[in-house]
Amino acid sequence: APPSYQLEPSEGQAKGQHFIGAGGEKMPNLGQMTVPLMLADGTAAAATFQAAKVRKPLMAVSASCDQGHLVLFDNDLSAMVDRDSPEGREIRRLVKQCVAKTTLQRKGGVYTLPAWIVPPDKLTDKDLQRIKPHLQRPSVAQQVPQWPSVAPRTNDGDVSMEPGFPRQGR
Predict the structure, then answer these.
(1) CB neighbours of 27 closer than 8 A, spacing ≥ 6?
(2) pTM (whole model) above 0.70
């Protein structure tokens, strides 16, 4: 914990929630702490973090959005801006005009990509041309020899796929 900031009980800790690291290891939720921050532009802010034994604190995009921020990720610039600022409104207006975009769906505090795995024999030549730099038909068939006829679904109807980034679990 940062010096002189108290760890407090949290709802997630009381429910026995844990975090899953990139290597699949479980990390218990140790509680939460609210700490003052000084942003790079000199603005004072505060953030509440769920505590776990990690090297660097992570912020949930959903929590930032709940606080009224627009969060952008890019190779050259990743940033948060106030959603209702003139710049935030302009960015949202421009994104709405984009024809080629993938819209993520938020379920609870998690953003999901609405996507399904396509069996190799269902890929068209046009599909293969588009994804060729990333994937080749033979390697897909070798990695997943048994293709389900329907994507596996969870109880609430979501496609069941595990993301490759830290996530909160039970």
Answers:
(1) 18, 19, 20, 21, 52, 53, 54
(2) no
Cβ-contact 33, 48 below 8 angstroms:
yes
- Rounded to whole angstroms, how far apart are CA atoms 76 and 59? 19
CA 54 – CA 91 distance, rounded (Å): 33
Cβ-in-10-Å burial (0-12, 13-18, 19+) of 161 comes to: middle
Query: pLDDT tens digits for 84-109?
Result: 999 999 999 999 999 888 888 888 88
